[in-house]
Design a protein that fits this description.
The structure holds two protein chains of two kinds.
Chain A: H1 2-21, E1 35-37, H2 44-53, H3 58-71, E2 96-98, H4 113-121, E3 131-132, E4 135-136, E5 144-150, E6 153-157, H5 160-165, E7 169-172, H6 173-179, H7 181-187, H8 198-206, E8 211-215, E9 224-230, E10 241-246, E11 251-259, E12 266-269, E13 272-277, E14 282-289, E15 301-312, E16 318-325, E17 330-333, E18 336-339, E19 345-354, E20 359-368, E21 374-383, E22 388-397, E23 405-414, E24 420-429, E25 435-444, H9 447-455, H10 460-471, H11 473-476, H12 481-494
Helix pairs in contact in A: 1-10, 1-12, 2-3, 3-8, 6-7, 9-10, 10-12
Chain B: E1 2-11, E2 17-26, E3 31-35, H1 42-50, E4 55-64, E5 67-68, H2 74-79, E6 82-85, E7 92-96, H3 97-111, H4 119-132, H5 137-141, E8 143-144, H6 150-164, E9 168-172, H7 180-193, E10 199-204, H8 208-212, E11 217-222, E12 225-230, H9 233-241, H10 244-249
Parallel strand pairs in B: 3-10, 3-11, 6-9, 9-10
Antiparallel strand pairs in B: 1-2, 1-4, 4-5, 7-8, 11-12
Helix pairs in contact in B: 6-7
The chains are: A alpha/beta, B alpha/beta.
The structure holds adenosine-5'-diphosphate (ADP) and magnesium ion (MG).
Magnesium ion (MG) binds next to α1 of chain B.
Family (chain B): Belongs to the ABC transporter superfamily. Ycf16 family.
GO molecular function (chain B): ATP binding; ATP hydrolysis activity
Domain ABC transporter (chain B): 2-248
């Protein structure tokens, strides 16, 4: 216990140092590398081309085409509290691959050094050692396997052999389609159906890469798994597709990180993440989302339109979503839990920060279908600058989900007086034995708190970082340690310039 | 050490004068006490010296060891050695007391061009000082002042002071709301810090604190001015007769 606290103490110091030493968006540089693009725009031919580039079997192509044909009949959702500029879907590249990835590397040693250097610079060295996000763990400590996705392709995945020994499959989704078609066929689209929503359908047609995880029955994954997404190419959309399956009695903790260069035109990231959780198994999915947020006047940035859902299929299945959303110009994202199995549990911990001109509409859906199901939502929204930040959440308890419980706590913090915070909870309880609790607060960063910190020697930005990190503490503590450190400094960095 | 000259202060938002010409000089190693009825401007003086927003200094100056305090940010004043133990310490939810202390100490060290303390060294310093103030490990882990009793908050202020080792300490009614035992802990804490290089300005309502922390000079403040200054005996006079006679003598209507 003492040990744990020591580390967290250190985390805060790191935050402060980071604030002091850093300009704003740290990952805004670009890798100069020769790329192959599919022609601009979207058509059946482009869908066929993407499928062909990945050497996909016929059934996969058919699946994509079906999604594409549906997508052209659909319109984007408009219910979120977001002002989304019109997107010209014919003015986007749907596939961008480094030329050096044309012949697939068979091991990390064969990967283009430029690509390896890119991840090294991002703090994600693609080496098989205990390293992530610039945090050095002593030899022999916890290891993290990484799948690195660069624009439309997975560059490499570490620790594959070691994971294979435990029976765990961890590879890119394109590889899984080729190597494990029976699993992909069985589960792809089974949590987020093709027709789910405009962006999910688009993703189903054009997804290029992402990660695939299968944990066999009774296996506790021997290390944390992670995927790091990097958008590099200009005018290119990224359509990540991730599929995680925890078979009966399995356990895995999965981390996701993402960054993109600074550009003054906006870029689209439309991802789908599906998680299947069978009886007695547990999945923890943590995200630190740090896509380029656009400049102070709202120029550029990533449109992050994401569908993430976990399906607790079996009894006593458990899922925990933790997200730290600091980046993106616009965030539209609701990681959700379908609690089908009896006694299954869903948790959602979220920090969403919107500064300058950023817009975020994010939250979760907890759908209670099984008996005696439990869900817990802790959302911390921070708005600064001229940003708008909305928590939108659905808690739905179905007639058969007797004796179920939800607890929701939704706190908003405002910095300055030109930003907005909104809370939109939807609650449906269709039986008498279940109970739902909802607490919401909105507050401003307190001048007395800042003054108190400053009389003790901290400057204004350190003081804000400290107070905001305190506000987010419950969620930060839900993160794996490596991510907690990164997240704390991100909180500080993304609020730079929000005071004074 | 600290030299305040003819300080006039009004509220920024409205035309209300609060300090009406305060002169105060505190030499190195001296302990001064300010007593006075509620609303006389004692807290305002401590806030203005620390750099809190909302006040406008219309006249006068405040110099600490050659630094013109009024030209500095609150954190610069802290780094220059000024410390205020708050009358009402502020709660900071979610921020561990230790984290707060270390962040503060290292910020000051950094501002002064000193090496930051390592986690281990810091822990040693805190443990020793916390023990003297009967602050246990639990209180060090809990979020800053959240759920602390009145006495715990005040002891925590003294702990911060002990760790930051300021040159000039201002204590704003640190004794109010303390029981006899807490009062002793706090005054022992303060006395342990007394030093030829460190000065204190002790703001208090009651004479009893001054039994424990013996002042060199006592000032009586009312209506934004220092009415009289004298030795410790002045505090005893006030204790015995109240402020009424003094106020009358200086032509000030008694406030409720
Ligand atoms: N921020 C403020 N807004 C309004 N009135 C204030 C403010 N600060 C101080 N005052 C007023 O100034 C006077 C002095 O207050 P204060 O300095 O707190 O006195 P003391 O600490 O001696 O009791 C009081 O009349 C108080 O109401
Ligand atoms: Mg006062």
């Amino acid at each position: 216990m003492e040990q744990q606290i020591e580390v967290r103490e250190g985390v805060d110091r790191e935050t402060i140092e980071t604030v002091q030493n850093m300009g704003s968006y740290k990952y805004g540089w670009e890798t100069e590398i020769e790329m192959d693009y599919a022609p601009k725009g979207l058509s059946e031919d482009i869908v066929r081309l993407i499928s062909a580039k990945n050497d996909e079997p016929e059934w996969m192509l058919d699946w994509r085409l079906k999604a594409y044909r549906r997508w052209i009949t659909m319109t984007p959702p408009t219910w979120a509290l977001l002002d989304i500029p019109k997107i010209d879907f014919q003015d986007i590249y749907y596939y961008a691959r480094p030329k050096s990835m044309e012949t697939r590397p068979t091991s990390l040693d064969e990967v283009d050094p430029k690509l390896l250097a890119t991840y090294e610079k991002l703090g994600i060295p693609l080496k098989e050692q205990a390293l992530l996000a610039g945090v050095t763990a002593p030899e022999g400590e916890r290891q993290v396997a990484v799948d690195a996705v660069f624009d439309s392709v997975s560059v490499g995945t570490t620790f594959r052999e070691k994971l294979a020994e435990a029976g765990v499959i961890f590879c890119s989704i394109s590889e899984a389609i080729r190597e494990h078609p029976e699993l992909v066929k069985k589960y792809l689209g089974s949590v987020v159906p093709q027709s789910d929503n405009f962006y999910a359908t688009l993703n189903s047609a054009v997804f290029s890469d992402g990660s695939f995880v299968y944990i066999p029955p009774g296996v506790k994954c021997p290390m944390e798994l992670s995927t790091y997404f990097r958008i590099n190419a200009e005018n290119t959309g990224q359509f990540e597709r991730t599929l995680i399956i925890a078979d009966k009695g399995a356990y895995v903790s999965y981390l996701e990180g993402c960054t993109a260069p600074k550009r003054d035109t906006a870029q689209l990231h439309a991802a789908v993440v599906e998680i299947v959780i069978e009886e007695d198994s547990e999945v923890k999915y943590s995200t630190v989302q740090n896509w380029f947020p656009g400049d102070e006047d709202g120029k550029g940035g990533i449109y992050n339109f994401v569908t993430k859902r976990a399906d607790c299929r079996g009894d006593r299945a458990k899922v925990m979503w933790t997200q730290v959303e600091t980046g993106s110009a616009i965030t539209w994202k609701y990681p959700s839990c379908l609690l089908r199995g009896n006694d299954s549990q869903g948790e959602f911990y979220s920090i969403a920060i919107a500064n300058n001109m950023q817009q975020a509409d994010t939250g979760t859906k907890m759908v209670h279908l099984g008996k005696n199901t439990r869900s817990r939502i802790v959302s911390k929204g921070i708005s600064a600058g001229r940003a708008q930040n909305t928590y939108r959440g659905l808690v739905s308890i179905h007639p058969k989900a007797t004796d179920s419980r939800n607890y929701t706590q939704c706190d908003s913090l405002l910095i300055g007086d030109k930003c907005g915070a909104h809370t939109v909870p939807y609650i449906e309880v269709k039986n008498n034995s279940s109970r739902v609790e909802h607490e919401a607060t909105t507050s401003k960063v307190d001048d007395d708190q800042l003054f108190y910190c400053r009389t003790r020697g901290m400057d204004e930005e350190e003081a804000v970082a400290l107070v905001v990190n305190g506000f987010c503490r419950e969620v930060l503590q839900a993160l794996p340690m490596e991510f907690a450190m990164e997240a704390q400094s991100l909180v500080a960095i993304s609020l730079e310039g929000s005071v004074g | 050490m600290l030299e305040i000259k003819n300080m006039h202060v009004k509220l920024e938002e409205e035309d209300k004068a609060i300090l009406k010409g305060v002169d105060l000089t505190i030499g190195s190693g001296e302990v001064h006490a300010i007593m006075g009825p509620n609303g006389s401007g004692k807290s305002t003086l401590s806030y203005v010296l620390s750099g809190r927003d909302g006040y406008e200094v219309t006249e006068g100056s405040a110099v600490l060891d050659g630094h013109d305090l009024l030209d500095m940010e609150p954190e610069e004043r802290a780094a220059a050695g000024l410390f205020l133990a708050f009358q009402y310490p502020v709660e900071i939810p979610g921020v561990g007391n230790m984290t707060f202390l270390r962040t503060a100490l290292n910020a000051q060290r950094k501002a002064r061009g000193q090496e930051e303390l390592s986690a281990g060294d810091f822990l040693k310093v805190v443990r020793a000082k916390a023990k003297a103030l009967k602050i246990d490990a639990d209180m060090l882990k809990r979020p800053v002042n959240v759920g602390f009793s009145g006495g715990e908050k005040k002891r925590n202020e003294i702990l911060q002071m002990a760790i930051l080792e300021p040159r000039m300490c201002i204590l704003d009614e640190t004794d109010s709301g303390l029981d006899v035992d807490a009062m002793r802990l706090v005054s022992d804490g303060v006395n342990a810090l007394r030093d030829a290089n460190r000065s204190f300005l002790v703001i208090t309502h009651y004479q009893r604190l001054l039994d424990h922390i013996k002042p060199d000079v006592v000032h009586i403040m009312a209506d934004g001015r220092i009415l009289e200054s004298g030795g410790p005996e002045l505090a005893l006079v006030v204790e015995k007769n109240g402020y009424a006679d003094l106020l009358k003598k200086h032509g000030i209507a008694e406030v409720a």
